[in-house]
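User: Could you walk me through two proteins back to back? I'd like the raw sequence and the structure tokens for each, with a short line separating them so I can tell where one ends and the next begins.

Assistant: Of course. Protein one, sequence then structure:
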Amino acid sequence: MNLYSFLNSLGIANPTGTGWLAVIFTFILAWVVTYRFIPQVRTFALRVGWADQPNARRLNREPLPNAGGLAIYAGVIAALILATFLRPIVIEAVLAQVLTILLGGSMLVLVGFIDDQYGLPPLFRLLTQILASLLLIGSGTIIQLNFGTPIDPILSVLLTIIWVVGITNAVNLMDGMDGLAGGISFITAMSLLAVSAQFEARAAATLVLAAVAGSALGFLRHNFHPSHIIMGDAGAYFLGYVLAGTSILGNLKVTTLFALIPTVLFVLVPVLDTTQVFVRRLMVGKNPLSTPGKDHLHHRLLAWGFSQRHAAIILWAITLVSNWVAMRMQGMSGIMMLATTIGIVLLLSFTVWRRLRAVFRATKGIAR
């Protein structure tokens, strides 16, 4: 079997072109840039006091630098810029979609970073997220409802806003334990990447997802327990927004609510976690957005006796299974699903091994 036949068996759109090479290059570049940039960001963050203090939501017992989102963002932007120079995006629609996602993501990185360091009112953050959602809708990225009613356009806009804002906050709420949000974002981005790579019309999503997956993996190398740095609201908002936007890129058409199931399965763990947190907090009369607490899924696993590492891996595994089901429902071939799953597991295993080896060496050095 030659390379063309192998790529064709994986379902890669236009395997004879160089687009798939650009995707691989984008992934590797984002991975390396983020991985190498984080130590500098961490050092500077500690120097100027950009750190999360121990609180009711997080599990850290000492100040932890919270500027990791800047490194994630830098990795994505650097990779996409260089990839575009090497293989220019000549299709105006694709370029517009990429720029729209990056513009909305940039807005949320800025708002998230300011909130990380100084605090912003929940209403202001929500309005910014709605504005970023409208930016996607204005560019044609929308969940298009076709129920045959006169209010379908209005419902489509509302559902898209709810989807984008909901996933953005869901990923942020998952960022309460080392390695959790980064790992889930990486798995989701890789799965969505595998699906979008089958369609030339989703070239924008494919390129952006490659950068996001690589950047999330590079960040995870420093964030798996014990963490050196966290992504903060800036990183979580950015990852959540990009995943929400790329998951519906290309006008997701819905004729029944069941058509949304595959899309929801890609982000099932954040959706379930956020839903149960919202319901529980509302039942006791608390504001779900502004009330921190240890009532998330990972807190329950910790309460059952699992370590932070084991709790993260368990939720990663659940995410991988739900993404596998989602890929199957999207009509992906068995060999493509197998290749995607093996790739995710190998890359995560390598990253965790590297992190644990670094921790072991550091501990051994201190003991001496």
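----
Protein two, same layout:
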Amino acid sequence: MSALRLPNPFSRGGHARKFSGILDEPDKYDKLSTRRLGGAAGRWRVALFLWSYEVHVEVQLFSRGWVRRAVLPVHLSSSTCFDPAHLASTAYNSSLANAPAYVDVHAGLAMPLGRDCYDFAATVPRHPLPGMVLAARTVFHTYWRHDLLPLGERQVALLHSILATQDRSATSVVLWTNAPSPSALTSLPVLRPLLDLYGDRLSVRTVDKRTLAHGTPMEGHALLDMADRQAWVDGDLVRILVLYALGGVWVDFDTIMTGRDVRVLGEHEWITQWDCYDKKYQPLNGAMMHFHRASPYLCEMLHVMSTSPPPARNSVDWGSRLYHKVWRSLVARGITPFKVLPYCFTDGVSCRLDNRLPDPFADPTKADRRWGPGRRDDVRTKVASVWAVHLHNRWDKTFPEGGWVDEMVLKPVEARVEQYRLE
């Protein structure tokens, strides 16, 4: 019996290629003219398709084993962080945390369309309302790895954008560093003028992770000394330890504040949405976050850190993935989770071309030609609605003169700095 022969779909010789151009007669075939006509027709069809349909393509690859092992399981924490007896023994201000809120910072939708996110941000009051129950003082914290890069103008711009625009009677900034002594920063010519101008509203402190971890689930843990060359793992740990010890608002140094009053967001404990794409396995970001001192949410994060495998270096295992893991564990246990600010509140650059804030470092002479009428006004109203712009490192970049960050953020901040000097 002869073997069954199946056609080879990859065979080139077994397929006769027939093509009829748009203008060709069926019985006439000219290879050269057909290629030309086919190419033109193909381009026309692609143009028509793109004019008729939106194309959304995002490709991410995840190991199925990693997803099954590290993402999907919900580990019910054995911590006592939310036990009433434990909370009573800490400095957590339950009255402040549980007070009725005037502002809802969670929209309930991803808001990827048009101006939705920015319009929602604009519904939040510009300043605290009478009756809001807020902390008497809001402390902003940030962290600089002294051994990686020298402090420069980008970092100074962030400090000015907080200290010159936020209520001077109710806010202050602590600049944390891994330098052995604060004098490594306070003696810098780039920072000295700010210390003189803002006085006790700006202080520099050396991070002592073992002292900060005292009384937390990470106390005495072997991983307290872990660090990497990106300052991701140790930076993620420092932000949680600092906020647990002191409370306040954390701001990563690769950020610039727009001048909106952050205190209006202080009724809730929150972190931020990563971007408008709502990443399936990495939806949360800690570049800005707000928690009260001794918050049980932070306690829970520290507990998960202390009981989980060590994080990979240069990873977000103690950042985005940790927050997501804790959020899922909380709701599985029936505990109201922390809030999540919409992406544009602090990271409007991370979205699609049609609705994101423009590239902060783009050449303004080229950008203006592309924007067209009304685009600059649209960007200006978006910037006025949000609280910060997260720059995602890019430390080799500077803000170009005449760009939208220069015109809409830096120059207004500089004007507030001059006003501050006169008051």
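The first strand starts at residue 138 and ends at 144.

Let me know if you want the two compared in more detail.
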